[in-house]
Amino acid sequence: MKLTVNQVRAGCEWQRDLCRKNASPTYAAILTELIGRLGTDEAVTELLTADGQDPVQSALCLRLFGAVNRVAMAQSASWLKAYYPTFGGATDVDKAVPAFFDFLAANLDAVRDQMTVSVQTNEVGRAAPLSAAMNYVAMVTGLPLRLLEVGASAGLNLLLDRYFVASGDTSWGPADSTLRLVGHFASGQPPAATSDIEERRGCDLNPIDAHAPGTDGLLRSFVWPEHVERGRRLDAALKVARSAPKLSLDAADACTWVSQNLAELPRGRTTVVFHSIVLAYFTPDERARFAKVIRTRGAATDEDRPLAWISLEPSDDDSSVVNLVCEMWPLGRRVVLATTTPHGTQVRWDPKEDRHQ
Ligand SMILES: C[S@@+](CC[C@H](N)C(=O)[O-])C[C@H]1O[C@@H](n2cnc3c(N)ncnc32)[C@H](O)[C@@H]1O
């Protein structure tokens, strides 16, 4: 069903607020112009109202930005290279805004086609806190790990043991890795002992094959113009992924997949279920079912087959603060290991046992 102009406007205002808070003046300025054009610029109004999906839930504006970026990348558009820092340019909103709308007007059909692609991001900055959590689990259980990632996207965080991570005077991971996560830890001393990963697999509603030719363009198109470091991390992680064996990523819903993969826990390994910035996509009922599957399985296991659950998810009261939490069985221990930003920077490592769960 067609959206109303007011619905689209509310979605654009919501997105503009996020872009302002997350250091993207270019997208914020484009959205201001877009809001002004709604109801007056016929082509733009038709493009967005005809989309039909909930503007916030379906990330309408980010789908538009990703679509324009991919069409512009395919044409090697000069404005992209001139005004988007992620493509080598310098932020200049006064020039970027008219260039964006001129390009959109000239490429409406191609952009409309591309807007059917859902937003896909895979942030490997999160591998810094996640790998520290894996080291912690390996240190506690003394066993190699079997990783199960839920909402894995392209699975780039499943390769966390192939990245170099430094925290203060300590570091882990291969020193010659193409991806170097340095400066992510702001305080505390995470365990540096490297975890031994014997098996890894993931699931996503829309898994992405890191080895497929279009994957870098797809993931790059969703990196915001000023987020240069994210773009660099993504390029480096994709290089690592392409030099590694193809990952096993199932197209599956989290609850069903976790329950299937926890049915048999292997002896002599710690099975680790983990996820980062995924739970917001679940309904409250799915969240409850997901937790129940893991905790019920955990309660039934023994020390030959330990189970750990690592969660890197925003706190309930402030989505800019992300908690790194680890639950372990049969120990029955729940530890808040650290807090971090949504992209895995500013990690404050400070393990605290949580007895309230
Ligand atoms: C914001 S992305 C995060 C991707 C990745 N975990 C990371 O940290 O880069 C959220 C991912 O969760 C996936 N997702 C959402 N709901 C899901 C579900 N019910 N089952 C499996 N995957 C889901 C989406 O498809 C998307 O790839």
Q: What is the residue-averaged pLDDT?
A: 96
Structural class from helices and strands?
A: alpha/beta
Specify the number of helices.
12
Name of the CATH first level of the largest domain: Alpha Beta
Order of helices and strands: HHHHHHHHEEEEEEHHEHEHEEEE
The rough form would be described as globular
Query: How many E strands?
Result: 12
Can you characterise this structure?
The protein folds into 2 domains: 5-114, no CATH class; 124-353, Rossmann fold (3-Layer(aba) Sandwich), CATH 3.40.50. It is 39% helix and 19% strand. The chain contains 12 helices and 12 strands. It has helices at 5-21, 25-37, 42-49, 60-74, 78-83, 93-106, 108-114, 127-141, 215-221, 228-242, 254-261, 284-299; strands spanning 145-150, 164-167, 170-172, 180-182, 185-187, 197-204, 248-251, 270-276, 307-314, 322-329, 333-340, 347-353. The chain is globular. Bound molecules: S-adenosylmethionine. Residues 120-123, 126, 150-153, 157, 203-206, 253-254, 276-278, 281-282 line the site of S-adenosylmethionine.
Write the layout of secondary structure elements.
Blueprint (H helix, E strand, L loop, with lengths): L4 H17 L3 H13 L4 H8 L10 H15 L3 H6 L9 H14 L1 H7 L12 H15 L3 E6 L13 E4 L2 E3 L7 E3 L2 E3 L9 E8 L10 H7 L6 H15 L5 E4 L2 H8 L8 E7 L7 H16 L7 E8 L7 E8 L3 E8 L6 E7 L4
Parallel strand pairs: 1-6, 1-8, 2-4, 5-12, 6-7, 8-9
Antiparallel strand pairs: 2-3, 9-10, 10-11, 11-12
The site of S-adenosylmethionine has 21 residues, from β6.
